[in-house]
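Ticket #4471: structure export looks truncated?
Reporter: QA, pipeline team
Priority: medium

Steps to reproduce: submit the single chain below to the structure queue and open the exported record.
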Amino acid sequence: VQLVESGGGLVQPGGSLRLSCAASGFDFRYYAFTWFRQTPGKAREGVSCVANSDGSTRYEESAEGRFTISVDKTKKTVDLQMSSVREEDTAVYFCAAAVWDRPCPVDEIDMEYWGTGTAVTVSS
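Actual output as written to the record:
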């Protein structure tokens, strides 16, 4: 089982970045996926969720209207399009998966698989 994130890097405030999570080793169709982020000294927080069961999505308040989560069931990837980024979006972003037959959200405790993270730095 693997979740591999990619797409992190340095971006200027107001810019855009697209993160991708490639899943393998489990039946993608029965899972919900959540992007989390974490900065030093702070608790990990859920940013956005998508459930393959019904296509529902959910966004953390500060991400609403700026980030878009999407799924490609053929490629088995979950992307997070980040736009109008802010310095406070700087964090390590993690992709996580949980077998889930209900709409989003999914609690962190229910996550079964985690990626190793990709770092995003928003700075001018």
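Status: closed, not a bug. The export was complete when the record was re-opened. Leaving a note from the reviewer for reference: The chain is about 0% helix and 50% strand.
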